[in-house]
Write a structure and sequence with these properties.
Number of helices: 6
Radius of gyration: 16 Å
Shape: globular
Structural class: alpha/beta
Largest sheet: 5 strands, parallel
Order of helices and strands: HEHEHEHEEHEEH
Low-confidence stretches: 106-110
Strand order of the largest sheet: 1-2-3-4-5
Distance between the termini: 38 Å
Helix content: 25-40%
């Protein structure tokens, strides 16, 4: 099952070409084969792995010459510790997302690449120091991003469904409001 946020490589290239030079483009993939990773690396600055990739597979993704971020769904402190262990030394950045509700998963149980609009308990990150670059995702929007940053001291926030009018349909107004809230 494809995510409602799926875009073709041609569409991704067209979007990336419109970005200012100071903005990094991030390609989100789940359980991508080498051909897709190579094609995506020719388009984006960062490969964000959002599937069931092993630490070895995450490390292999570096051969495409791009930064590699590992997104992992968490719900408990044990999940967070496991996410750090699975990512440290393999990924350039750990992206903590909320575990997808079981109803949101396709038949095989694999994630759809995020954007579930669900957040986890940010209090689990009080005193969090993974010893690697990290960021926060999951259920973040303009209305709560300030609280997310204040509660977690995250150095990076990732947003998808929080700036959409419908799954896969981004809102310029919501993106502007989100950026304004982050800057505030």
């Amino acid at each position: 099952t494809r995510s409602p946020r799926y875009v073709t490589l041609d569409a991704a290239a067209a979007l990336a070409a419109r970005l200012p030079a100071h903005v990094k483009s991030v390609g989100v993939v789940a359980d991508a084969d080498d051909a897709l990773l190579a094609a995506a690396a020719g388009i984006v600055d960062v490969l964000q792995l959002h599937g069931q990739e092993t630490p070895a597979r995450i490390a292999e993704a570096h051969r495409h010459g791009r930064e590699v971020w590992r997104a992992i769904g968490v719900a408990t402190r044990a999940d967070i510790a496991a996410a750090v262990k699975a990512s440290q030394g393999a990924a350039d950045r750990l992206l903590l997302d909320a575990k997808a509700p079981s109803a949101a998963l396709p038949a095989g149980g694999a994630p759809l690449g995020g954007g579930n609009g669900v957040r986890f308990d940010w209090q689990l990150l009080v005193g969090f120091n993974p010893g690697m670059a990290w960021g926060l995702a999951g259920g973040i929007d303009a209305g709560n991003v300030g609280a997310a940053i204040a509660a977690t001291h995250t150095p990076l926030v990732d947003v998808s469904s929080g700036v959409e009018d419908a799954p896969g349909v981004k809102s310029v107004e919501k993106i502007r409001a989100f950026v304004a809230a982050v800057r505030a």
